[in-house]
């Protein structure tokens, strides 16, 4: 179990704004790219890139570099980072490609720009040429700008591309002391959340609908590939981008909803550690579907964790092994019943498997039983036809679990 509630961390929110670089700016980006490639080659060729070699390279590059000197340092640091991580992977015996610079962009560190009000001013050639961008033209970043002005956020290094500028808003987060914990179980067709005594169940079948629509499109496109391979590849790429965007949009809303509950109720979040992927979720489906469901689960976790961090909500991970097969009341073995019900062979408990999973995660992750929670003998969360709600993302069921009395729940260590 990793707990991040004790230390401070920085979280970055990146926003991209469209720009159109031309003239000097475009030339600058091109020249930076050429220079960075030279740097990369030099570092790769050097046995050990010493301080002396670094200084030599820097001096040589500066001879015909008319832009701010900082950009040369920036490029050296950036390329050093690339090569270091490449060599680290090599040492570990991983298969890695030699680093190459494909995308043209410039890293603009914070000493090379200023933000005054709405005006972002980037130094290109000191005292001679600056790139000025009026951020008032991008109203969607206004909430973040206000936070920068009030000192809650800072603007970190920028990425300047020919067609966009990426702004990185950096927040130092302080995790709050949770009043309670919320556990999350991600399944094929729903996401179940236990927050205090409330169980929320979110319908995620819309996601599968999205993937299904694109699967059909892919099949059609594959028909084209026989006579036009390039066209079919192009179409496949286009649709896969759209599919991911639609799915991501859905997952964003769902993650917002879940993190919103945690913030409102000052709860920490318990997620499943998927480093030994959940076969239960992925079982039985075709390989592409498996890949997509894996992607969905990981993407949702990533979004929840990221959004939680941004608001100082502590997050812990627990090993989910047997979380839906272990009786939360006595630790006995559960066997499947009709529908999604599970029954304990030892104590006779009958419960919904998703509820069992979140309850176990909740206990294993926080070490205690939710106060006042009683597990009922008869399930109050029966299978019901779920209604899809693609836009609002609402919990399809929200139930207070204060039901029939059952025996005391003994937490079982994972
Ligand atoms: Zn039991």
UniProtKB/TrEMBL annotation:
Recall the GO molecular function terms of this protein's record. Answer: DNA binding
Q: What name appears for this protein in its UniProt entry?
A: Transposon ISC1904 linked orf, putative transposase
Question: NCBIfam families, alphabetically?
Answer: guided_TnpB, IS200/IS605 family accessory protein TnpB-like domain
**Which parts of the sequence belong to the Cas12f1-like TNB domain?**
298-361
Under Pfam families, the record lists: Cas12f1-like_TNB
In its UniProt entry, the species of origin is given as: Pyrococcus abyssi (strain GE5 / Orsay)
Is DNA-binding included in the keywords of this UniProt record? yes
- Keywords, sorted A to Z: DNA-binding
């Amino acid at each position: 179990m990793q707990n991040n509630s004790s230390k401070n961390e920085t979280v970055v929110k990146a926003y991209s704004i469209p720009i159109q670089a031309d003239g000097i700016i475009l030339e600058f980006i091109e020249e930076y790219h050429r220079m960075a490639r030279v740097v990369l080659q030099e570092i790769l060729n050097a046995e050990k890139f010493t301080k002396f070699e670094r200084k030599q390279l820097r001096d040589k590059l500066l001879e015909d570099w008319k832009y701010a000197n900082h950009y040369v340092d920036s490029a050296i640091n950036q390329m050093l980072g690339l090569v270091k991580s490449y060599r680290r992977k090599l040492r570990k015996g991983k298969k890695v490609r030699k680093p190459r610079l494909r995308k043209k962009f410039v890293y603009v560190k914070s000493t090379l720009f200023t933000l005054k009000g709405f005006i972002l001013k980037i130094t290109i050639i000191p005292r001679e040429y600056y790139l000025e961008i009026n951020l008032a033209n991008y109203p969607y970043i206004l909430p973040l700008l206000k936070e920068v002005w009030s000192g809650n956020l800072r603007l970190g290094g920028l990425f300047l591309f020919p067609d966009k500028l990426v702004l990185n808003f950096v927040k130092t987060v302080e995790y709050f002391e949770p009043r309670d914990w919320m556990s999350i179980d991600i399944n094929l067709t729903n996401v179940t959340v236990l927050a205090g005594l409330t169980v929320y169940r979110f319908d995620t079948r819309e996601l599968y609908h999205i993937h299904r629509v694109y699967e059909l499109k892919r099949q059609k496109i594959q028909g084209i590939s026989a006579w036009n391979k390039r066209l079919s590849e192009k179409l496949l790429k286009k649709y896969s981008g759209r599919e991911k965007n639609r799915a991501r949009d859905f997952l964003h809303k769902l993650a917002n909803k879940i993190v919103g509950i945690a913030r409102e109720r000052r709860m920490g979040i318990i997620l499943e550690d998927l480093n030994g992927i959940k076969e239960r979720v992925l079982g039985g489906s075709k390989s592409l579907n498996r890949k997509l469901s894996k992607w969905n689960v990981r993407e949702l976790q990533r979004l929840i964790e990221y959004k939680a961090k941004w608001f100082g909500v502590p997050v812990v991970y627990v090993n989910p092994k047997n979380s839906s097969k272990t009786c939360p009341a006595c630790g006995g073995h559960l066997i499947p019943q009709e529908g999604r019900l599970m029954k304990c062979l030892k104590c006779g408990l009958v419960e919904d498997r998703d509820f069992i999973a979140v309850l176990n995660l909740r206990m294993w992750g926080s070490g205690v039983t939710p106060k006042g929670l009683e597990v009922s003998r008869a399930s109050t969360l029966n299978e019901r036809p779920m209604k899809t709600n693609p836009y609002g993302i609402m919990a399809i069921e929200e139930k207070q679990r204060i039901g029939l009395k059952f025996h005391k729940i003994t937490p079982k260590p994972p």
